[in-house]
Design brief:
This protein is of the alpha/beta class and 338 residues long. The protein has 2 domains: 158 residues, FAD/NAD(P)-binding domain (3-Layer(bba) Sandwich); 153 residues, FAD/NAD(P)-binding domain (3-Layer(bba) Sandwich), CATH 3.50.50.60. Helices cover 28% and strands 23% of the residues. The protein contains 9 helices and 16 strands. Helix 1 runs parallel beside helix 9 and helix 6 runs parallel beside helix 7. It is globular, with a radius of gyration of 22 Å. Bound molecules: flavin-adenine dinucleotide. Flavin-adenine dinucleotide binds next to helix 1, helix 2, helix 5, helix 6 and helix 9.
Length: 338
């Protein structure tokens, strides 16, 4: 994946753009804006660029060296990077807006969705996406392994998307876990044909030893006699003409308990804009994504948004394209066309 797509960078325009987030959206935008001759400064809370491509996706699915090479090209072309800087904590978004001609927010979806059941705050109930990122931080030498939760025994994964598949893959293939993890169960409230992950992905996981429990959903997580348990309820599907997929409905009286050592919550991630209650005039949609117009501009003039923080969880290619499209609009804005 190339982020700098021009042979030569245009003459400096004297305009400065701050990009918040160095995932595929932020990097694609940084490359395009640099090619136009703008000064580009990228801020990321992690110690290295790449976002979920680098720290979320297992090593065998995406060549990390190629990402590093493309980021080096950006650096050589003059894109400046500030790592380990969390905007909204270490520097305020307002400060970036004041010191730049335009700002692009591309901070993705970095918080796991809650299950909403009793017991989910127990210490062995783990938000999957955050844990996967920590595992890769430790693998690349940015975090001591002693600070990473080390699962053992029986793991129950709740969810059936990319994150759920990746937790299972890490548990059963990474040398740091595969000796200690004895059993991996995946609970999903619909059937595999209706899941975000493809049926072939279920087959791959089953070949690795994952037990798939379709049409089940956790209703309670608890400890008894020093052991961990999850109470699952069986589900049935009810037709829902107004929705894309049939609705899963609990079957009363079908609850059953299984003993577990760890639960991974992997039912999706939510957008994480780089601000809290003080929103700097940047409005959110009801689902937490950043509201933008047809030009990728937020409700604050000169501040744009792209990638998963604008759309909700998606895919690398879509985030990359969103970054490119936003960069084209930012260039138009900086040259007086918007
Ligand atoms: C576990 C997992 C597996 C996936 N597998 C695939 C796959 O196989 N194929 C596929 O196409 N897609 C996959 N995806 C989805 C894909 O990774 C995302 O759609 C894509 O990375 C989104 O790009 P983005 O640039 O919008 O955000 P991200 O890649 O999430 O990057 C956002 C960046 O912003 C930074 N950031 C966040 N908040 C702040 C802040 N306040 N200050 C500074 N920096 C901040 C983060 O550190 C990060 O670097 C997967 C996602 C997950 C979670």
């Amino acid at each position: 994946m190339k982020f700098l797509r021009c042979k030569e960078v245009a003459r400096p325009t004297g305009k400065r753009v701050a990009v918040v987030g160095a995932g595929p959206a932020g990097l694609a935008a940084a490359g395009a804006l640099k090619c136009h001759g703008h000064e580009v400064i990228v801020y990321d809370m992690l110690p290295e660029a790449g976002g979920m491509m680098m720290f979320g996706i297992p090593d065998d699915r995406i060549p990390k060296d190629r990402i590093r090479e493309s980021v080096r090209e950006l650096m050589n072309a003059g894109v400046k990077f500030f790592f380990n800087v969390k905007v909204g904590r270490d520097i305020s978004l307002e400060e970036l807006i004041a010191s730049s001609d335009a700002v692009l927010i591309a901070t993705g979806t970095w918080k796991t969705r809650e299950l909403g059941v009793e017991g989910e705050d127990l210490p062995w109930v783990i938000p999957a996406a955050e844990w996967i990122v920590e595992v890769h931080m430790a693998r690349y030498g940015y975090l001591p392994w002693s600070e990473v939760f080390r699962p053992r025994g029986t793991a129950l994964i709740v969810g059936a998307g990319l994150t759920a598949a990746d937790v299972a893959t890490l548990l059963l293939t990474y040398k740091e876990f595969k000796e200690d993890v004895k059993r991996v169960i995946l609970s999903y409230r619909r059937t595999r044909e209706l899941a975000p992950m493809r049926p072939s992905e279920f087959e791959r996981l089953e070949k690795m030893g994952v037990e798939v429990m379709e049409l089940t959903q956790p209703v309670k997580i608890y400890e008894e006699g020093g052991k961990g348990f999850v109470r699952l309820v069986k589900m049935r599907l009810e037709s829902a003409p107004d929705e894309r997929r049939p609705k899963p409905v609990p079957i009363p009286g079908s609850e059953f308990d299984i003993g577990v050592d760890v639960v991974f919550k992997a039912i999706g991630e939510i957008p994480t804009p780089p601000f809290g209650k003080e929103n700097h005039g940047i409005e959110l949609n009801p689902d937490g994504t950043i509201k933008v117009d047809e030009n990728f501009m937020t409700t604050r003039r000169g501040v744009f948004a792209a990638g998963d923080v604008k759309t909700g969880p998606s895919l690398i290619g879509l985030a990359y394209k969103s970054g490119l499209d936003a960069a084209a609009k930012i260039h138009l804005y900086l040259t007086g066309g918007l």
